[in-house]
Amino acid sequence: MQADGNLVIYDIKNAVLWASGTYGKPFKGARLRVEDTGSLCIAQTKGPCLWRSGGIALCQPASDPTFKDAQVILKSGEILTPGQSVWSNSGSCALTLQTDGEMLLNRQCDGATIFSIRPNSDNPESIGADMSLSAFTMNETGNLQVTYLGKSPVMFKDIQSRSFGTLTTLSADLRLVKTANLPCPTPETMLKSGHSLRTGEEIFSPKLNVKLTMSSDGFLALSRQCDLRFIWFLFGKNDRSPITDHLTAVTMQEDGNLVIYNSKKVLVWESGTAGREFAGADLRVNNDGTICIARNGSRCLWTSGGYGLCDPVYSKKFDDAKVILWPGESFQRNDTVYSRQKTCRLSAQSDGNLVLTRTCDGEKNERAIVHGLWIEVNGNLMMYAEDKSWTYVMRNAWVTPDGANLRLSDDCILCVYKNGACLWTSSGRAYACPANNSDGEARLIANDDDLSNPAQIRQLTREKSSDLLMREVLESGEALSVGQSLWSPSRNVQLKMEWTGDLAIYRRCDNNSIWSSKTFSTTSNPRSVVMQENGNLAIYNREGLLDWSTGTFQPQFGGAKLRLQDTGSLCIYTEGECLWESGGFGLCEPSPLPAFQNGTVILNLGKSLKRGDSFTSNTQKGSCSLSVQADGNLVLVRSCDDAVVFSICHGVGFTENLGWDQEASVYKFELTDNGDLAITYDDSVRHTFKKISSLFNGSTDMDLRMNDDCRMCVFDNGTCLWTAHAVTYPCPSSGTTPTKAYQEVSGGVLAPGESLHIGQMMWSPSRTTQLRMQADGNLVVYRECDHQVIWASRSNYSGSRSRPLSLLMQSDGNLVMYDARHRLRWASGTAGDPFTASHLRLDDTGSLCIGKARGECLWKSGGMGLCRLVDASQFQDAQVILSSGKKMTKGQQRFSRNKACILTLQEDGNLFLYRKCDGIAIFSVRHGRDSPQGLGNGRNAFVSQLAIDVDGALHVNEATKYRETLFRGIKTTTKNSSDNITLADLRLSDDCQLCVFKEGACLWFGHAKTYPCPVTLAGSVLKSGQTLSASQSLHSPRHNVQLKMENNGNLWLRRGCDEELAWGILLGDVPAMDIPSKLTMQADGNLALYNSEKVLVWDSGTAGRKFAGADLWVNNDGTLCIAKNGSRCLWTSGGYGVCDPLYSKTFDDAKGSAERRKLEFVGEVETMIKCGRHVNIVNILGIVCHGRPIYYWSIARTAPFYPSLKTVDRASIRT
User: Fold this and answer.
1) Would you state the pLDDT for residue 518?
2) Model pLDDT, residue 1084
3) How far is the C-alpha of 911 from the C-alpha of 945, rounded, in Å?
4) Per-residue pLDDT tens over the stretch 486-527
5) How far apart are CA 235 and CA 251, in angstroms?
6) What is the pTM for the complete model shown?
7) Is the peptide bond preceding residue 834 cis, with omega within 30 degrees of 0?
8) How many Å apart are CA 473 and CA 561, to the nearest integer?
């Protein structure tokens, strides 16, 4: 029994399991007692009960006259459904079953919740974290029942089983009365100077229509009572912040500043109103939906702004205000605009601040760091930051605010204005300028004065904003925000974006939901649904990640709109006809659908399709195939154009998604005996997919059938009780060439410089696999046998500006994808020798191949196998590096059988597979986006461990699936002694190929560079008199550094940890005849580069008696070294070294002025050039330039036909 009056049960980890919800006034200091009636009672000492637990009555219930004349709210057999409310006699209390699944009993005097049934775990009547109510019933036996969404009714209070003497529970009813011993408190309307509003406390406006609350879960909210929506709020916590960082109180300080501190006494937010003008001011809540800082009850000195009341309040002062943004216009950095009388200035400063300033005294009203301000055609006010990420300043809180504009008044308040009403106003100072008090008083009337005649204002508002009430079409590019609705033409069906994040369709005949996106259970509640310009209807969460979409981004959907039909189905259309429909349950009286009368029956009652089963129907317009795929997805495809008509997918982002739970994949799809559609997951538990029996009383003749357009329907006596979502654009006519969803690229090969654009595809030679460039930016390989994805680039980012537009085979051999702003989003990592001038083709195995026009593959994408597994005997004796159930953690390594290849899980969270012969990375899983397996740039996008399960699915980061095999149900031929199944494992061959191996076959291959190792000289030494020719290389003793002479004449010293350059000689653009062909360690000790004409191109300048007979060494520290007989270095290349910098005592005591050293160095270089000496300054540039990163470059006196000192083209070199 806590001191704040809350009765709480905690678990052993101090997590709240249950609470009475009675914290704050008037419960502070209350005690708990047990009454003789069997009820718990929370009350002050010797005072009346402020909260009762209720419960079942005693064996001999006493007569209670309180309820004799009370309002009967549910009679025996009656049901309360979502959206319905019942009231007490006086109308002072209302019991409501909300559309979000909560049932609340509220009293109207202060909006307090008296009783609730909520979908979470810390309330008196809890129904579980993922549950929501769809019905509340008083049955004939006197028991109270609840029905959860998608489930059968269950007992809520079992009253019948108890004995009540001579009383019987038959025909009992449920009653509601307002009791006298629970009076409403006198609401506080003001927070006095020096006082605080603490957690659980609240203050009201004088008319009790607006409430300011300091909530228990850490945010300050101003809500309007008309629909309980927030109109202004400050969030003070997130899911990752500890409980001690949450907000605890908002304080009206004596200096006039409104401040919020967290539990650590750290300032979280302030109004910025400290000073002489505000000293001693109070905070009050106004009837117009704002909070106001004022002194002695006079006019506001500061106001919060916000969305206002349900009916927009007409405000004359903005009729003649300056319009600063019309619909579709934007306000960019360095732009400035003034109010009509130039008393206020709005500036987007060059430092990124958006500032609204009063010209009279320089006081700032609004400030935010932005790059630009934009008002959309639909009335949303948005701003975007330097990285071009968008943020809503004002989301439309009205049904159709189209045509609204942004205005700036002469008292420095911003207003999104339409038809005389402000749909949103900014916060800011509202007191008059010191030198213009009289004028200021005339302009700045107190907010409450505008409400002198509320009835007149409400009527005026309705006349002014009548076009805000109904909305029938969502145009391309528009959004439907939380609380907004779309209506069918006859107003018999409503589409609503709920506060829970769910997009739902309700039929008005009984307010039942007949379709929903099922996005109410996501961790970050979505706030809007967007009809994207590419035709995809999409819901994104607060983190900008896709939660749900219709998947209609193909070319024919471009510019499409959304409407709601009278049949209860959503329709995405372009020129009248629907291209996609949502389907769903029928209306209360479903209309006959002749199109399904002669349809093909797929399932009768009690029948099912299991994994691997398929149903094919030959219709007048072609064939339709419904199959439960091996990956657990249920897909209906029509043959005329290969379009996926309907699908149930495992994952998030699909019309019918099952979530990311690894067990949430379809094993069986059935039509149950009672007419419901059900899905059995891999965990063998059956889940109701569509509960048809809850809305209709079907007959025994019900079935699931398909019509000629491949659309599905649960059919009963001529009507459809449920229809599946479907693409509905027509198939190509029989006399024309079918228009496929993707245009085929002729030849099936991308030559250097060629691209694969969105909507294009290419086949493998035998047409067993297909490569598609999808509209969502994803590059995907499908196998034709069952249309499964066997490889994908995973480049389908949520932001439209971030999605790749095409696939480009660059002339340097790198396969890349760029977004609209030419930022690299994905790459194969195959730039440079030996990939230069390579082509891209798709193999019949399903692997992308980068190689010469008719040569062997130099790089393969790998991926899943085909439907018929190919023998992989080459991996039979390969090294098992990860067995089923085992893990590989950071810092660990795995080797192939002869240690030719090393798989390393690095400390930086990247996973690399190297081959020893040349140190290059064959396979990698990188933190970032521009690699074959990019994990993204999020802070959690690191590989902390790698594991493999029994079926061969690879996992990273504990619970995150990295690759999931498509072959769960393989029949075993080899028995395991412990559990009688063959376990999958991960193997690594000596040619550096990764394979998920099971029963003699590879279920998955890793991407890999497959070209042979270059010819290498023995060991790590170029002996005196020896030559390193083009394509040959040396490596350090630990194989962590490689020296290579390339065909283009460049000499590279490359470190194996990340393939970056440690040192190099770059020649830039030189004639072909002058390209060096060999590096020679001369007998005189000089390291020299000669071209094919035996002309010197570069040398180390180490010829002479001191260096004679020396060898060239490749060191483990990332340097070249000229030394005699393996002793200390006489010359070193210097450079950037290895990934982990080596400690060097040499420079511990280095002294001297950097400027002096620079001057000495410049003088020495000039002298060397005049004397004809060769100069290589790679060693010392880092010191001379104060340790700043520099470009690789060299200065050399070259052959006579190079008349001047030559520097390297820096643009082509990485720092």
Assistant:
1) 84
2) 93
3) 9
4) 989 988 899 988 877 889 999 888 778 899 988 875 455 677
5) 16
6) 0.38
7) yes
8) 7
Structure tokens that stand for 505 in this block? 């369709």
The token pair at 62 is 């006493």
Q: Determine how β-strand 493-497 pairs with β-strand 1076-1081.
A: unpaired
What is the sign, positive or negative, of the torsion defined by CA atoms of 896, 901, 906, 911? negative
Q: Is 827 exposed, middle or buried (0-12, 13-18, 19+ CB in 10 A)?
A: buried
User: Is-contact 1133 1120, C-beta < 8 A?
Assistant: yes
Residue whose C-alpha is closest to residue 292's, from 307, 311, 275, 273: 273
Strand partners, 769: 783
Distance between CA 1123 and CA 1033 in Å, rounded? 19
Residue with tokens 């206020």: 344
Contact 137, 78 (CB under 8 A): yes
* E runs forming strands in 178-270: 190-191, 196-198, 202-204, 210-214, 219-224, 230-235, 247-252, 258-262, 267-270
DSSP string, 651-691: BSSSTTB-BS-TT-SEEEEEE-TTS-EEEEETTS-EEEEE-
Residue with tokens 């050293």: 1157
Q: Which of the 8 DSSP states describes residue 1162?
A: H
Task: Report how far Cα 936 is from the mean position of its chain's Cα atoms.
Answer: 11
What's the order of all strands across the beta sheet hosting 570-573?
Answer: 473-474, 561-564, 570-573, 578-581, 726-727
User: How many angstroms separate the CA atoms of 268 and 262, rounded?
Assistant: 7
- pLDDT at position 438 is 33
pLDDT in tens, 184-234: 656 677 889 989 888 878 888 877 778 888 876 667 888 887 777 778 877
CA 353 to chain centre: 27
- What is the pLDDT at residue 870? 74
> Which stretches of 892-1046 are assigned E, i.e. beta strand?
893-895, 901-905, 911-915, 921-925, 945-948, 954-956, 960-963, 985-988, 994-998, 1001-1005, 1008-1009, 1021-1022, 1027-1029, 1033-1035, 1041-1045
Whether residue 38 contacts residue 57, with contact meaning beta carbons closer than 8 Å, is answered with yes
Q: Which residues contact 295 (CB under 8 A, 6 or more apart)?
A: 278, 280, 281, 282, 301
Phi and psi for 118 in degrees, rounded to 5?
-125, 150
Contacts of 722 (CB under 8 A, 6+ apart): 583, 584, 585, 586, 677, 690, 692, 713, 714
Cβ pair 232, 307 in contact under 8 A: yes
3-class SS letters over 552-600? CCCHHHCCCEEEECCCCCEEEECCCCEEEECCEECCCCCCECHHHCCCE
The amino acid occupying position 1128 is: R
Is the four-CA dihedral 347, 351, 353, 358 of positive or negative sign? Answer: negative
Residues 6+ apart with CB under 8 A from 148: 127, 131, 132, 133, 134, 154
Euclidean distance between CA atoms 365 and 344, whole angstroms = 10
Q: Which of 361, 370, 356, 360 shows the shortest CA–CA distance to 428?
A: 356
Q: Give SS3 for 235.
A: strand
Cβ distance 923 to 1000 under 8 Å?
Answer: no
Strand duo 760-763 + 364-369: pairing? unpaired
Cβ-based neighbours of 1169, under 8 Å, separated by 6 or more = 1175, 1195, 1197, 1205
Give me Rg for the CA atoms of the chain. 37
What is the 8-class DSSP label of residue 706?
A: E
- Nearby residues of 258 by Cβ (< 8 Å), 6 or more positions away: 250, 251, 252, 270, 271, 273, 283, 293, 302
For 445, 1045, 1180, 1185, the CA distances from 1175, given in Å and listed in that order, are: 79, 21, 11, 17
- 310 neighbors 226 (Cβ within 8 angstroms): yes
How many Å apart are CA 1108 and CA 913, to the nearest integer?
A: 40
Question: What tokens appear for 218 in the block?
Answer: 């850490």
